[in-house]
Design brief:
10 helices; 18% strand
Length: 393
């Protein structure tokens, strides 16, 4: 141990003495390691990491498959071609469909809903910028998410007569309230409607929506008509706007769940279309054949909504390959620098051998210098990675 400590002290003195070589080598390693670490953190967060909730593999995400000319009416969500069926996969559903599907418990223990909502936020009389979403009362229970502070929105909060409550994200709690525990019970206004903050979500939970849409504030779904009095999507006919997720019953597959819910889904679409046709001011819709009605589809929900993320996956993996090549080049450059430096120390090594130093002793000394150099480059690279990652996440 004493010999190792002597080797470390000597290696540190030599690296400090040749500060030019040390600076170039450390910076080369730091930039290569930092870029790779930061980009892999982004890829992990965007494409690989599962939701930080209880048993995420049991979660499913509902979609509808429609013919290209199907008329949704009002639609808020994403649509993408489905490669297997040739139809269009849509991510949103009417509230009436959610209400019907939620009653079915044989294959899915919970079906819960969420959707972004535009709001003007006011805190302590000052306007603020924040993203908001409405969630069904069983949203957090269905996810199996525990609060970081306070409590979550529950079923008894999700009806029109309930006192309006809100749950905020840990990031918004830190940014707007400086992580003050007294935030519980505080009043905030969304579109001039007062809400009482009752909880804070864990820092690792950023929502179940598309990447870049992490909500700061979540409020009960039943409050939506009060937030959008002149254009409520919950009450309006022809509005496809809710994202639906669920949790499978133990032992039930996604295909079994889809088959058990397909009939209810088809019936709800028919009822919704009929209500839309009968609503005042709605345009006449052409007759729809049975084969053209939307079909229910179920995807894995372990990572939340993934449409936008999958769209950027090829570019992210390509970029990851590029920065890996940069790291390889940086390591090759550092190796060349170390070899050049070693050749310039031939006289020093010859003197040590003449004084009786063994070959393994010299090898250990040189390896110690390389390890110390790598540790300095790796440590600085981690610092760079944390800075770069904060820009993207």
């Amino acid at each position: 141990m004493k010999t190792l400590w002597q080797d470390l002290r000597y290696a540190a003195r030599m690296l400090r003495k040749q500060y030019g070589f040390t600076a170039i080598a450390v910076m080369s390693l730091a930039l290569g390691i930092g870029a790779n670490t930061a980009l892999f953190s982004v890829v992990d967060a965007v494409l690989l990491k599962k939701l930080p909730v209880s048993k995420p593999d049991e979660l499913v995400l509902f979609k509808s498959l429609t013919v290209p000319n199907f008329s949704f009416g009002g639609f808020n969500g994403s649509t993408n071609p489905d490669p297997t069926s040739g139809l269009i996969a849509a991510t949103s559903f009417p509230y009436q469909t959610f209400a019907r599907l939620r009653e079915q418990k044989s294959a899915v223990s919970e079906i819960f809903a969420f959707a972004g909502v535009g709001v003007n936020v006011n805190v302590d009389g000052q306007a603020d910028v924040a993203r908001a979403q409405v969630v069904s009362g069983n949203y957090y229970a269905g996810l199996g998410l525990q609060p970081f502070l306070g409590r979550m929105i529950a079923d008894n909060d999700d009806h029109a007569a309930a006192t309006p409550v809100a749950v905020i994200s840990e990031r918004y709690w830190q940014r707007r309230f400086n992580r003050n525990p007294a935030v519980l019970g505080k009043q905030i206004k969304l579109n001039n409607v007062s809400f009482t903050i009752v909880g804070v979500t864990p820092p690792e939970f950023t929502g179940t929506g598309q990447v870049g849409s992490s909500p700061d504030i979540s409020v009960p779904l039943a409050i939506e008509p009060q937030l959008s009095t002149d254009r409520s999507r919950m009450r309006g006919a022809g509005q496809w706007w809710l994202r639906l997720m669920g949790r499978l019953q133990p032992g039930v597959t996604s295909e079994q769940a889809r088959a058990s819910l397909e009939g209810v889904f088809q019936q709800s679409v028919l009822e919704h279309r009929t209500a839309r046709v009968q609503a005042p001011g709605q345009p006449t819709l052409p007759p729809l054949e049975l084969k053209d009605y939307p079909r229910l589809a179920i995807d894995s929900g372990s990572q939340g909504e993934m449409d936008v993320r999958r769209r950027f996956a090829p570019q992210l993996y390509l970029l990851l390959g590029v920065v890996a090549l940069v790291l390889l080049i940086a390591c090759a450059n550092v190796a060349n620098l170390v070899l050049v430096r070693a050749s310039s120390r031939q006289k020093e090594i010859a003197v040590r051998l003449a004084m009786g130093a063994g070959r393994w002793r010299l090898i250990r000394l040189l390896v110690t210098e390389s390890v110390l150099l790598s540790m300095l480059g790796g440590g600085l690279g981690i610092i760079f990675a944390s800075w770069i990652k904060d820009v993207f996440l």
